[in-house]
Amino acid sequence: MMMSIQREWMEHGTRQHRGWLRSAVAATVAAAFLTVTGAAAGAPVPPDGSIAGLKAKFIDVKGVKTRYYEYGQGEPLVLVHGGATAGANVWSKNILGLAKRFHVFAVDRLGSGMTQGPKDGDWGNAAQVEHVYQFIQAMKLGRIHLVGHSSGGALVFYLAIEHPDLIKELVVVAHGPGMPALGSGPGKVQPVLDTCPDQSTYEGRKCRMVALAFSAATFDEEFWAADQYMVDLPTSGTRTRVAARADAAQTQAYRQRMWDRVKNDGALKMPIMIYGGKQDVLDWEGKDATARLNGELGFFDIVGAKNPNVKMVIINEGGHFMYREHPELFNQDVIGFIDFWAASKPAR
Amino acid sequence: MSFMNPRVRSTGSVNRPARLLCSSLLLLAMALLVLAALPPAAQAAPGPNASIGGLTAKFVDVKGVKTRYYEAGQGVPMVLIHGGSTAGSSTANVWSRNIPGLAKRFHVFAVDRLGSGLTGNPLNDADYATPGQVEHVYQFIQSLKLGKVQLVGHSAGGAVAFYLAVQHPEIVTTLTIIGMGPENPPAADGPTRLDLSSCPDQNVYEGLKCRVEKLAWLKTTFDAEYWEADASMAMQPKSKEARAKVVALTNDAWRAAATAYREKAWDMVRNGGVLQMPVMIYSGKQDVLDWGQKDPTAMLRGELGLFDILGAKNPKVKMVIVNEAGHFPYREYPEEFNRDLLAFIDHFQNQSAPAAKPAAKASK
Fold first, then answer.
1. Is residue A46 one of the residues assigned to a domain?
2. Cβ neighbour number for residue B17 with a 10 Å cutoff
3. Chain B: nearest CA to A83, how far in angstroms?
4. Looking at beta carbons, which residues of chain A come within 8 Å of B19?
5. Interface membership of B353 toward A (CB under 8 Å)
6. Higher pLDDT, B145 or B299
7. What CATH number corresponds to the domain at position A111?
8. Is it the case that residue A32 has pLDDT exceeding 70?
9. Are A129 and A275 in a shared domain?
10. Which residues span the domain enclosing A37?
11. Domain check: are A120 and A12 in the same one?
12. CA distance, residue B191 to nearest chain A CA (Å)
């Protein structure tokens, strides 16, 4: 539909070039068409909160109603989103491309998107990890390729440590901030965040995501509409979570325990790809003219200390959501990385 | 399908004794794989013209300079440019583990740079400097009528590739720079982790070899056949003469000219946007040249700085960093490098020009 409207607009444009009046008429018509097109973004959000023509599904995971996308067939690949209320919707530009090669599952984490919050009020890392683990069990996926972004990157990292036999390859996207190598000063993004509304409000969280994206095109109106819709649901876990907040000390202790297991015991043996956007403001210190990616390089050192099969890819003009900004490049890199190790498996 | 396992880690475990703890069965299996993976020539003496890896070098006259090169495969031309300073211990032989794999897809040319390997010395002393090196590779491409090429350079050869792409963008389809390139922004404020204090003097072959070994991460990065061929080339009278020439020519004016040449190219890229072809920067995480002495691990500041220069006006830049790899990641993990290179080229060539990247550049 979009295509035909655009084509019509262009035809108008070429036919009407003789007089300014007729051109103006054409422009008005075009504007009208564009408004109609734009209205599609303002269309009611489907009940399942899905976007980009995808259709979400639901499954009960140990009593927690869990929303997910499922596309493709063959080897299962699980996508775990970061700290976004929009949940699995952040993968909307990647799911179909990855589904050409994999059986793709993009799941809403505990209390994100349209997945319910924890019954016992436990929002900690361990509970988040357990929920994704139980999702994989409930779907009977067996061994999987696992991809996680940002705090979801931390989550898949922990999941791989807790259940190494389950993971074939691990892809950790834009996870590094908070890692030891990152400097002590305020990050590049802080001044922008300081201008955002309070993070307990939807506008505040949206403001933060916009600040982390490389360009205004990273998220579109349809994305925000579905996000707002899911946050506004009476059952939304987001509200409860904001009120609850995970215990920071507990979170840090858990993380430290995991790092020690990897650094000292070599708990992580599967191939790992670390993926970063060169302009990720979360990994960009305020005092540096450009991002030095110290956090992600520090993460590289942790996972690479006892595991030779680690690589890192950094792409230009990519922010914290570079997989949305360069979906084809990201998909190709993920597929290439997994294919490489799949091909060398017999030799290992 | 090649049987060389890209990451047979037994070859790397010399640096990591902990890994020797794997079961003896696994070790045996890996050892067998290594034997199966290495080309038969690996144990053999070099062939004619210092050829190694079962390859056979050729010669072409490039504007009066006899130039040695390897040629393999067919189709789209790809040119590989080795690193090292003039007549030091680096030649097209460094690509011996990559040429056969890349030749399955490309028409591969790996050339000995001006004054290096069995390529003759410059006819004019001025051409010992970088512009002469760049011009020689350019004329090599012209002599062989290659047209547009996929260009790959390592270390100082990465610099040659970079300058060639700046000056002749019309013949460079994609650019890949491995390791440090055009005298990057420094790795650190102080000196790097390259420590030559235990090496013999750089004017004897053992000194040159020692330096290259310090730059490698694995003990298996280079083998006996490589060193034998390398020594035979590096100790020819013409190579000694070239090294002596470079020492004699290097003075303040020479250095100032090199700096001006580099700054001009950087300015053209940063402000003029002259480098618009897809670029890949490829690094070993443990490259001592990009590892400041006071840093516990390599922070790769030099290569990230190069990224900033190349990416300032060009969205099509990516960087790949591989673990347990030093200054020669393409020799240490040839299958993985070859695959990454092919994937990089394929991705950007399959992109239709308008849809390759989001139109909007962030305002921040």
1. no
2. 8
3. 22
4. 308
5. no
6. B145
7. 3.40.50.1820
8. no
9. yes
10. 2-41
11. no
12. 19
- Average pLDDT of chain B to the nearest whole number: 87
Which domains, and CATH codes, for chain B? 55-351 (3.40.50.1820)
Chain A closest-CA separation from residue B256 CA (Å) = 26
Query: A248 and A184, same structural domain?
Result: yes
Tell me the two tokens of residue A274: 């670390």
Q: Note whether A37 and A60 are same-domain residues.
A: no
Residue A14, pLDDT score = 32
Greatest distance between any 2 Cα atoms in chain A: 76
pLDDT band at A26 (very low <50, low <70, confident <90, very high): very low
Residue A323 lies inside a defined structural domain of this protein: yes
**Which residues, other chains included, contact B300 with Cβ-Cβ below 8 Å and sequence gap of 6+?**
A297, B187, B283, B285, B287, B290, B321
Query: From B352, which residue of chain A is nearest by alpha-carbon distance?
Result: A328
In a domain, A153, yes or no: yes
CA dihedral of residues B146, B147, B151, B155 (deg, nearest 10): 70
> Is residue A190 less than 8 Å (CB to CB) from chain B?
no
Q: Are residues A76 and A23 in the same domain?
A: no
- Write down the number of H helices and E strands in chain A: 13, 8
Per-residue pLDDT tens digits for A118-160: 988 888 889 999 999 999 999 999 999 999 999 999 999 999 9
Q: By the CB < 8 Å criterion, does A301 face chain B?
A: yes
The residue written with tokens 């990616």 in the block is A293
pLDDT for res A344: 77
Q: Please write the tens of the pLDDT for every residue from A66-105.
A: 999 999 999 999 999 998 889 999 999 999 999 999 999 9
A329 touches chain B (CB under 8 A): yes
Domain count, chain A: 2
Q: What is the pLDDT of residues A299-318, one digit of tens each?
A: 999 999 999 999 999 999 99
Task: For residues A207 and A193, give the distance between their C-alpha atoms in angstroms, rounded to a whole number.
Answer: 8
How close is the nearest chain B Cα to the Cα of A244, in Å? 33
Q: Given CB atoms, is A217 within the 8 Å cutoff of chain B?
A: yes
* Inter-chain touch A308–B323, beta carbons under 8 Å: yes
Q: Is residue A290 included in any domain, yes or no?
A: yes
- Taking an 8 Å cut-off on Cβ atoms, the answer to whether B3 and A347 are in contact is yes
A33 shares its domain with A152: no
Residue A348 pLDDT: 33
Helix (H, G, I), strand (E, B) or coil at B59: strand
Query: Is the reported ipTM for this assembly greater than 0.95?
Result: no
Q: What is the mean pLDDT of residues B247-272?
A: 95
| A124 and A208 part of one domain | yes
Residues 248-287 of B with CB under 8 A from A: 285
A192 touches chain B (CB under 8 A): yes
pLDDT at A166 over 60: yes
Q: Could you tell me if A297 lies within 8 Å of chain B, comparing CB atoms?
A: yes
Q: What is the pTM of this model?
A: 0.86
Task: Check: CB of residue B279 under 8 Å from CB of residue B317.
Answer: yes
Which B positions 183-242 lie with beta carbon below 8 A of chain A?
none
A200 to A60, A189, A196, B360: CA distances (angstroms): 28, 18, 11, 29
Q: How far is B304 from chain A (nearest CA, A)?
A: 7
Task: For residue B290, give the DSSP letter.
Answer: G
The nearest CA of chain B is from the CA of A41 a distance in Å of 19
All residues of chain B having their beta carbon less than 8 Å from the beta carbon of residue A345 are: none
B336 in contact with A, Cβ within 8 Å: yes
* Beta-carbon contacts of residue B83 (< 8 Å; ≥ 6 apart): B90, B94, B153, B154, B155, B156, B157, B158, B179
Which residues in chain B touch residue A215, judged by CB atoms under 8 angstroms apart? 358, 360-362
